[in-house]
Every structure is written in C-alpha cells, then in structure tokens.
Design brief:
The protein is an alpha+beta fold and 288 residues long. The protein folds into three domains: 62 residues, Uridine Diphospho-n-acetylenolpyruvylglucosamine Reductase, domain 2 (2-Layer Sandwich); 113 residues, Uridine Diphospho-n-acetylenolpyruvylglucosamine Reductase, domain 3 (2-Layer Sandwich); 98 residues, Enolase-like, domain 1 (2-Layer Sandwich), CATH 3.30.390.50. Helices cover 36% and strands 25% of the residues. The protein has 14 helices and 14 strands. It is globular, with a radius of gyration of 19 Å. The relative contact order is 0.11. It binds flavin-adenine dinucleotide. The site of flavin-adenine dinucleotide has 33 residues, from strand 2, helix 3, helix 8 and strand 10.
Length: 288
Amino acid sequence: MAGKEDFQIVLPFDFDYYLPKNLKEAVELYRYLDQQGKQPMFFSGGTELITLGRIDLAYTEAVIDIKEIAECQMIQFSDHQLLIGSAVTLTQLEEANPFPLLTSVSSEVADHTARGKITLGGNICAQIFYREAVLPFLLADSELIIAGPEGLKTIQINEIFQEQLRLKKGELLVQTSTDKRFIEAPFYAVKRRQQWDTGYPLITLAALKMGQELRVAISGLCPFPFRSPEVETYLNRWGQAAETRVDNALSALPKPILEDVEGSADYRLFVLRHLLVDALSALERAGA
Ligand SMILES: Cc1cc2nc3c(=O)[nH]c(=O)nc-3n(C[C@H](O)[C@H](O)[C@H](O)COP(=O)(O)OP(=O)(O)OC[C@H]3O[C@@H](n4cnc5c(N)ncnc54)[C@H](O)[C@@H]3O)c2cc1C
C-alpha cells in the first residue's frame, strides 16, 4: 500500500498523516480532527485520494490510515462465518481466495498494479460509483462490522448499502462477515467492458443460486451498484421461458440507466439482456 510520500508528489494540497494502531484510536482521532476543522478522511489503499484529489474532487487536511489495525487486516473463518478486513487488498483476496465469487469479481477490478493497492473497504466505500466488490456481499446477505463514536455495530448489508454505504460521520467499515452457505453456493460472474482488457465496467453481473432462488447484482448499468428484489422475482419464474423472464426483469430495473463514453443506455440494456440469459442458462440446473 502507498505511504504519505506517494501522495505528496501528485496532490496539490498538504495533509497530516495518522497511522492508528487500533479502532478506538482511529475513531477518536477522527472526532478530534473533525473538531479541528481538518475534514479528516479514513484511508485504506489511498488510490481514490490520488485520482480525485489531483482534479479537485477530493480534499482533506488529515488522513487516518487504517492499514495497521489488526481487525481491518484479517481474512479468517470463524464458526460458519468468513470475516474479511476492510484494509485487505484485492490482490490479497485473489491470492487467499476465501470467497470464489468475490475473487471472480474483484480480480476484474482495475489492473494488476492497482489491485495491489485498492482495498476491499476502499472499493465498497468509494466515491467512484462502480464499487464492484460489493456485489458478492449484496448477494450473500453479508453483515458489515462498523466502528464509530458509539462503538462497534453489526448490520445487514442490504439495510445499509443503498446505492452507497450509508455510514454516519466518523464511522468506518471494519470487516465483512459472510455465512459459509453463500460462499459454497453456485455462482456466475462476468464483466463486460467497452474497450481494453482492464478498467471500468460497461456491465458487471454477479449471480448466486441458493437452492432454487437466483440472486443477481449489477454494477455499471446505473450510477450505483444494486441488487433488486423486483428483478429477482421475475427471473425466478422458472416455469416461463428464459427470454420472457429476462424481458420482464429488464422492465423492473432501477433508473437512471447510464449513458456515457462507456456506452449508450440502449447498448447497456442489450448487453445485460444477453448476460442475464447466459446466467439463467448457466445456473438453471445448479443447486437442484
Ligand atoms: C486505476 C484505477 C482503476 C479502477 N478501476 C475500477 C474498476 O474497474 N471497478 C471499480 O469498482 N472500481 C475501480 N476503481 C475505483 C477504486 O476501486 C476505488 O477508487 C477505490 O476507492 C479505491 O480503493 P482504495 O482502497 O484505494 O480507497 P481509498 O482511496 O483509501 O478510499 C476511498 C474512499 O473510501 C473511504 N474509505 C476507505 N476505506 C474505508 C473504510 N474502511 N471505512 C470507511 N470509509 C473508507 C475513503 O475515506 C475514501 O472516501 C479504479 C481505481 C483506479 C485508481
């Protein structure tokens, strides 16, 4: 991961750098620095501060680097839960591979060099809206462990992640906790880009099958990643033809559909339609 020196070379502003050793210290530092008017920022891989800071879309006078906090660094199975710390890099996840669907999605984020710096928490909490690494956790009804001024709390991801992670001021994501049943379930994941082999998605689709229930989560279609119960209801009408289920599901998508340099809204819908038909076919018999 990067240190302060890497940022001072490229950023047009200076900031104080803190490296707390535990969660209590991190939370107290945030409160103190906020009271001083320093606009503090928790910081994990730090790549977003470089990307957005140099074009005036991010600013801080104090960063609180969480990478030395033990809870934020762990990958551990405990009972039936997999705990992953928010400061674990995407490369570490790929190498340890504790959650194959997560590996499949996160190993397509950015390029190899950037994945050595980008962290799970940084991607889930990112301002850059693709946040692809959140998709497996939305599908797995994972829980998030969050530290803040009131201590630690555990909350179901689908309650607190609505388009983005709805953290309160001074809170930080510590870990994800995922039940092993979801980790072992059949899955399908694919990323389509408009150009090049690396970079932002045109569409990323992740799907998981629990028993007879298909779940899907999507990034790149809207200016936020999402999982939609309405879309899943249509896709799960197994008695109907796949194309009918997919067309009905497309009618229930959230809005707006992105229209940008990566692709038009119509093109994105065209690609998604094919990916959903492929996902249904790939998972039709799985878990039966
Ligand atoms: C070259 C490049 C290519 C990219 N390609 C993709 C892509 O294909 N798909 C994709 O989804 N994203 C992509 N991104 C976006 C990237 O994943 C995000 O910018 C991500 O935030 C970077 O992770 P980081 O660990 O460096 O985050 P940081 O820069 O450390 O933090 C990002 C934001 O999250 C906050 N934050 C970090 N950790 C925590 C925490 N534990 N609790 C609370 N808040 C926290 C920070 O305060 C900051 O606001 C790309 C970025 C780069 C630089």
